[in-house]
Amino acid sequence: MALCSAGQFVDALPLVAPQLEDSALPNDQRAEAFNIAGACSFALGQWASSVERVRQACVERFGGAL
């Protein structure tokens, strides 16, 4: 979170990315990871890939009941 807040998006994104796939994390921690990844991706101009990753993770986690 600190790296993202400091504008160090290139450094923050690879640190938070593994948490997006970690189904053992509580939902609130995964939600924060998705928010950080989204902010980093948006700042780096990678918004479309980030949105698709979040959409796919939601489908997998909640069975498409979005």
Describe this structure in words.
The protein has one domain. The model has no long low-confidence stretch (mean pLDDT 78). The protein is an all-alpha fold and 66 residues long. α2 packs antiparallel against α3 (27-43) and α3 runs antiparallel to α4. The protein has 4 helices and no strands. Helix content is 74%, strand content 0%.
What keyword list fits this structure?
single chain; 66 residues; mainly alpha; 4 helices; 0% strand; globular
Question: Can you lay out the helices and strands and say which pair or pack?
Answer:
Elements: H1 2-5, H2 9-20, H3 27-43, H4 47-62
Helix pairs in contact: 2-3, 3-4
Poorly predicted spans: none
| SSE pattern, N- to C-terminal | HHHH
**What's the pLDDT, averaged over the residues?**
78
- Percent range for helical residues? over 70%
Query: Any idea how many domains?
Result: 1
In whole angstroms, the N-to-C terminal distance is 27 Å
Count the beta strands: 0
Helix/strand-derived category reads mainly alpha
Gyration radius from CA atoms, angstroms: 12 Å
* Biggest sheet features: none
Shape: globular
What fraction of the residues are assigned to beta strands by DSSP? under 5%
Number of helices: 4
Quick structural overview:
By secondary structure, this protein is an all-alpha fold. It has one domain (2-62). The chain contains 4 helices and no strands.
